[in-house]
Design a protein that fits this description.
single chain; 368 residues; alpha+beta; 12 helices; 15 strands
């Protein structure tokens, strides 16, 4: 990466000093390539390069020297059919389907990790394309589904990118509260997702506020699975924390490929940094990028030995799961920028829960 920076600097120096040497070099060297650079430099000037508090080669400079990542080759989308027995299906899969039938259709899972319902999410995808997660009951029947890809079909005309107004026109007013034991929990305070109870399931429809409040993801959970969860938050455990970490990593990459970006690579070292910050926030009851010792995310990463040219951090707190955390981050402009930033190549995720079992999520992105 340093060689790239030096090469870019050499081009800039050569361009800016061109009047001093052009007359002598022109008889021996074809300088037409300098005219191309001149045109591209003018484009860069019209959209200034912004250097963050960390040194980085921006996407504008990468484009100038031909280093823009290749677009992600799109996998073939499966043919989707409108479900008959239930309102929604994902990849033609419905609640109650057998695991053998599912995996005959989508192949073997890429990851298995514990979720907040005490079951496991099985992640299926082709290099994070055609991404979905499935949960199974003890009889290997589907009791949970999630996707943020164009795999949603319904018998009421709702799919990915359907406007919120259409969803509500077809499904009615969403739930505004849910009862757990003797306690009612308020739902949908942000208006960024809607809850519905239908087909013996709870359906959560997520919206993208940056795409005119259109459907960006869906989660479907069997009523029995939701009923077994006594509160809105799951009990703290090492398996749950690890599950949340990998699930947030997976859904982040699933979103990146829908934006034509390469997938990020998991980094153990920066995951430890992220985990340490989540633990610190959960233990000391604060929520901030700057810790109580005054360290920034970049300070913490450098202290732990992570070398980077570009870096960023996302924080989330109090969401029920990594799915809700991610969908919320995507609706925040600054956090969204980190998730879909082509300057990053690596990601580490760390999760901790406080005494009330509320999760703290930290994502550290970087490139070196």
């Amino acid at each position: 990466m340093k060689k790239i920076v030096y090469f870019v600097l050499l081009l800039v120096v050569a361009f800016n000093t061109r009047p001093l040497w052009e007359e002598y070099a022109e008889p021996y060297v074809n300088l037409a390539f300098m005219d191309i650079i001149n045109e591209q430099m003018e484009e860069v000037r019209e959209s200034p390069i912004v250097i963050n508090s960390v040194d980085k080669v921006t996407s504008e400079v990468k484009s100038l020297v031909g280093l823009t990542p290749d677009p992600v080759e799109q996998a073939e989308k499966p043919a989707l059919a409108a479900p008959e027995a239930q309102t929604f299906s994902v990849y033609n899969i419905q609640i109650g389907d057998g695991r053998a039938d599912v995996e005959k259709e989508v192949g073997a899972p890429k990851r298995q990790s514990q979720n907040e319902y005490g079951t496991d999410w099985y992640a299926y995808h082709e290099n994070y394309q055609n991404f979905l997660m499935v949960s199974y009951d003890e009889e290997n029947r589907v009791n949970g589904l999630y996707t943020s890809h164009d795999l949603i079909s319904s018998n009421v005309g709702i799919a990915l990118n359907t406007p919120k107004e259409t969803v509500r026109a077809q499904l009615g007013d969403p739930m505004d509260r849910m009862r757990k034991g003797l306690t009612y929990y308020i739902l949908n305070e942000t208006n960024e997702h809607d809850y519905y109870q239908m087909d013996n399931s709870f359906v959560t429809v997520f919206y993208d506020v940056h795409e005119q409040n259109t459907v960006t993801a869906i989660q479907i959970l069997n009523e029995d699975l939701e009923a077994e969860k006594k509160g809105m938050y799951a009990e703290n455990s090492a398996a749950l924390r690890e599950g949340f970490e990998y699930q947030l990593f997976d859904v982040t990459n699933a979103t990146r490929v829908t934006h034509g970006l390469p997938v990020l690579t998991w980094d153990d070292r920066v995951s430890e940094t992220a985990r340490g910050h989540s633990i610190d926030m959960a233990t000391n009851s604060y929520f901030d990028h700057t810790n109580l010792e005054g360290q920034s995310p970049f300070d913490r990463m450098e202290e732990d030995g992570t070398h980077f040219m570009a870096a960023g951090e996302n924080l989330a707190y109090g969401q029920f799961s990594s799915i809700f955390a991610h969908e919320g981050l995507m609706n925040s402009a600054g956090h969204r920028k980190n998730i879909v930033n082509d300057d990053f190549a690596y990601l580490g995720v760390g999760v901790a829960l406080n005494d009330e079992d509320q999760p703290y999520f930290t994502e550290n992105f970087f490139d070196n």
